[in-house]
Amino acid sequence: MDWMKIVAALALIMFIVYLFPRARHMMENSPKGSSADWMGFVVPILVIVLFVMLLVQLV
Q1: Where are the transmembrane segments (predicted)?
Q2: pTM score over 0.70
Q3: How many domains does the chain have?
Protein backbone atom coordinates (compact mmCIF):
# COMPACT_ATOMS: atom_id res chain seq x y z
CA MET A 1 0.00 0.00 0.00
CA ASP A 2 1.31 3.41 -0.84
CA TRP A 3 0.88 6.38 1.43
CA MET A 4 -2.11 7.83 -0.51
CA LYS A 5 -4.20 4.73 0.19
CA ILE A 6 -3.26 4.86 3.87
CA VAL A 7 -4.19 8.55 4.13
CA ALA A 8 -7.48 7.92 2.31
CA ALA A 9 -8.31 5.03 4.65
CA LEU A 10 -7.52 7.14 7.72
CA ALA A 11 -9.65 10.01 6.38
CA LEU A 12 -12.56 7.63 5.77
CA ILE A 13 -12.30 6.25 9.30
CA MET A 14 -12.20 9.78 10.72
CA PHE A 15 -15.33 10.76 8.75
CA ILE A 16 -17.18 7.69 10.01
CA VAL A 17 -16.15 8.35 13.63
CA TYR A 18 -17.14 12.01 13.29
CA LEU A 19 -20.50 11.45 11.57
CA PHE A 20 -21.82 8.31 13.30
CA PRO A 21 -22.86 9.95 16.63
CA ARG A 22 -24.58 12.80 14.80
CA ALA A 23 -26.43 10.41 12.50
CA ARG A 24 -27.57 8.33 15.47
CA HIS A 25 -28.80 11.49 17.23
CA MET A 26 -30.68 12.61 14.12
CA MET A 27 -32.38 9.22 13.74
CA GLU A 28 -33.42 9.10 17.39
CA ASN A 29 -34.84 12.64 17.40
CA SER A 30 -36.40 12.82 13.94
CA PRO A 31 -40.16 13.17 13.57
CA LYS A 32 -42.04 9.99 12.73
CA GLY A 33 -43.83 9.84 9.39
CA SER A 34 -47.59 9.54 9.18
CA SER A 35 -49.42 7.55 6.52
CA ALA A 36 -50.03 10.76 4.55
CA ASP A 37 -46.29 11.44 4.53
CA TRP A 38 -45.59 7.95 3.24
CA MET A 39 -48.24 8.24 0.53
CA GLY A 40 -46.65 11.51 -0.56
CA PHE A 41 -43.44 9.52 -1.03
CA VAL A 42 -44.86 6.33 -2.53
CA VAL A 43 -47.13 7.87 -5.17
CA PRO A 44 -44.41 9.84 -7.05
CA ILE A 45 -42.03 6.86 -6.88
CA LEU A 46 -44.75 4.60 -8.27
CA VAL A 47 -45.46 7.06 -11.09
CA ILE A 48 -41.76 7.18 -11.98
CA VAL A 49 -41.49 3.37 -11.97
CA LEU A 50 -44.54 3.03 -14.21
CA PHE A 51 -43.17 5.68 -16.59
CA VAL A 52 -39.83 3.87 -16.83
CA MET A 53 -41.63 0.60 -17.48
CA LEU A 54 -43.60 2.29 -20.26
CA LEU A 55 -40.39 3.59 -21.81
CA VAL A 56 -38.84 0.11 -21.65
CA GLN A 57 -41.87 -1.38 -23.37
CA LEU A 58 -41.69 1.19 -26.16
CA VAL A 59 -38.12 0.25 -27.04
Answers
A1: 6-23, 35-56
A2: no
A3: 1
